[in-house]
């Protein structure tokens, strides 16, 4: 089964080897048929502590690393766009 990859913005880098990533998505309201933004925060593993608040990153599902961490940072979104490796 393929692992999910999400794109988001780092909102906290206070933890050691941990960042909090805010992922926003657009969904249609079931009654009003208007697109609304929903957001969710994910704790992601950042081994080198290289990502800071405000960075755009890609995160990937992984095995449980702690009680809350089930995601790992793949790469910086700006670097991925420059390399052309991710479409997003």
UniProtKB/TrEMBL annotation:
CDD domains: Ribosomal_uS17 (cd00364). GO terms for biological process: translation. Gene3D superfamilies: Nucleic acid-binding proteins. GO terms for cellular component: cytosolic small ribosomal subunit. Keywords: Ribonucleoprotein, Ribosomal protein, RNA-binding, rRNA-binding. GO terms for molecular function: rRNA binding; structural constituent of ribosome. PROSITE patterns: RIBOSOMAL_S17 (PS00056). Pfam families: Ribosomal_S17. It comes from the Bacteria. The keyword Ribonucleoprotein applies. SUPFAM superfamilies: Nucleic acid-binding proteins (SSF50249). Belongs to the universal ribosomal protein uS17 family. Part of the 30S ribosomal subunit. NCBIfam families: PRK05610.1, uS17_bact. One of the primary rRNA binding proteins, it binds specifically to the 5'-end of 16S ribosomal RNA. This is Small ribosomal subunit protein uS17. The gene is rpsQ.
